[in-house]
Amino acid sequence: MTTCISSSWNANWPEPVEIRTPRLILRTAEPDDLEAIHAVLSDPRATRWWSTPPYETLDQSRDWLDAMIANGPDHPDFVVEWNGRVIGKAGFYVMPDVGYILHPDVWGQGLAGEAVGAVIDHVFNTRTVDTLTADVDPENAASIRLLQRLGFVRTGFGERTWNVGGVWKDSLYFALSRADRAMMATGQAPA
């Protein structure tokens, strides 16, 4: 179960959304998140399946975080907090493509599934989009399993779609329809 709550915000911005799950808080990014985000984006284990090599400088992470913040608080892209610390991000930098990255120290605890499931439900509850998508490296078995558990189905394959640090990567494409997600919520298998 997730809960969305608003908090006070600068009058020039829409109120930010905070999503709470049993263990996580997903919220609008803030400049103070820089050190924690850099700890994720500079870790080679975390970025093994990411669209860029590990960031080498704090300035690279600052640029990334600034771009996330510049999208505004009404954009469904969130930092993920667990036990009071930022451990990554989950959301939609560009709709309808879901993206997520968590620090490897928290892998294997179901936190990615909890975070991604929450942002999916948030988007389906607040947007008119009928289908969400994901682009995954075919070698990223854990992410593929996560997407499938959330109801995504494979829709295609692309060769040499990402050049990450001079190495070409392939892509598996996945999609999740609003109808399939609703069926899963009632305990039914998607069509």
Description:
With 191 residues, the protein is an alpha+beta fold. It has helices at residues 34-41, 58-70, 111-126, 141-149, 178-185, and strands at residues 3-6, 17-20, 24-27, 77-82, 85-94, 97-102, 131-136, 153-164, 167-177. The chain has one domain (3-185): Gcn5-related N-acetyltransferase (GNAT) (Aminopeptidase, 3-Layer(aba) Sandwich). It has a six-stranded antiparallel beta sheet, sandwiched between helices. It has a three-stranded antiparallel beta sheet with strand order 7-9-8. Helix 1 (34-41) crosses helix 2. It starts with a strand and ends in a 6-residue tail after the last helix.
Could you list some keywords that capture this structure?
191 residues, six-stranded antiparallel β-sheet, alpha+beta, disordered N terminus, three-stranded antiparallel β-sheet, 9 strands, Aminopeptidase, 33% strand
How do you describe this structure in short?
The protein has 191 residues and is of the alpha+beta class. It has helices at residues 34-41, 58-70, 111-126, 141-149, 178-185, and strands at residues 3-6, 17-20, 24-27, 77-82, 85-94, 97-102, 131-136, 153-164, 167-177.
Coarse shape = globular
Top CATH class: Alpha Beta
Report the structural category. Answer: alpha+beta
Cα separation of the termini = 23 Å
| Rounded Rg | 16 Å
Record the SSE blueprint.
Layout: E1 3-6, E2 17-20, E3 24-27, H1 34-41, H2 58-70, E4 77-82, E5 85-94, E6 97-102, H3 111-126, E7 131-136, H4 141-149, E8 153-164, E9 167-177, H5 178-185
Antiparallel strand pairs: 1-2, 2-3, 3-4, 4-5, 5-6, 7-9, 8-9
Helix pairs in contact: 1-2
